[in-house]
Prior knowledge:
Two copies of one chain form a homodimer. Chain A is α+β, with helices and mostly antiparallel strands. Chain A is built from six helices and five strands; from the N terminus they run ααααββββαβα.
Amino acid sequence: MDARNNKPSELEIFREFLKRQGMRYTPERETIIKEIFSTHEHFDVDSLYISIRQKGLRVSKASIYRLIPLLIKANLIEEVFFENGQMHYEHIYGHEHHCHLRCQECKRIEEFSDKRVAQIEEDLQRRFNYKILRHKLEVIGLCSECQKKSNSS
Amino acid sequence: MDARNNKPSELEIFREFLKRQGMRYTPERETIIKEIFSTHEHFDVDSLYISIRQKGLRVSKASIYRLIPLLIKANLIEEVFFENGQMHYEHIYGHEHHCHLRCQECKRIEEFSDKRVAQIEEDLQRRFNYKILRHKLEVIGLCSECQKKSNSS
DNA sequence: AGGCTTATTGACATTGAATAACAATTTCTT
DNA sequence: AAGAAATTGTTATTCAATGTCAATAAGCCT
Lengths: 153, 153
């Protein structure tokens, strides 16, 4: 448990998850998870693999690819967007949910949250009789710098 | 021009677009566009290719892959989601913008629109000084049938 | 603690969507 | 009608993601 707020760590959550599924806790899985949760950055398989290698650690890409669906099932990470032929992920456990405002030109990303989305979810729940699990709101636009560039050209 | 509402057709829009870009209008492009806009369904490259062939027409997949970015640039279609290793698209011109509520289990899709998203966009525009171009709101949940199934198991 | 079952690993091969290369063809301007 | 240049289909290529499989190791049971 985390001493400050009594909230179990990602690793603890995941070990619990593995036990429930009759799966095993391995050093490789630990390495990958620790790397993922060491920052609050988005990641893709390739960048994750590289940063693990740069720390002098060693896991195969196959193990990363095999772990990702488990982390998603355990509600620790989620897909955020698909770009340049690769899926990108971010971790969600322990972080406020947020949406993404992305610049179409320079690819920069701003994070935001808005409680109106939760209201929309409630309405959908009633209207369609769904059990809402999550949402993904992606707003695409031009940042102020890229607006200037396109105006001057 | 469409006789009823005076609105140019997708083909006209696209020919205009091609001319602006110094590009050429070809029978292959016409075939693909007509097929895309003959229904209001979502599509992916493979299903599109098949339905064109089923009509006895013939274009290469390469031409489809080459056309899609142009249609996106011309604001006629957009990516909706990536699933099963394939990008899925829908056409947007001449249709009210809508968002998607998707069942995680059975993959069924409900379409909805909510004006609160436009309000969120306005706020983002001001707050981040972005020029907002579009958004993609995907809500994922369990439809009523799939809820029943998961309860009984 | 040691043994046994079976999940997991890494290496390698494979799949398949998407892109690139290129010669043959076709559009479109003049 | 001719010529420059874009587009086509074919073929080859890329590369993310998945499958295969023998070797290894986790974790339960006694």
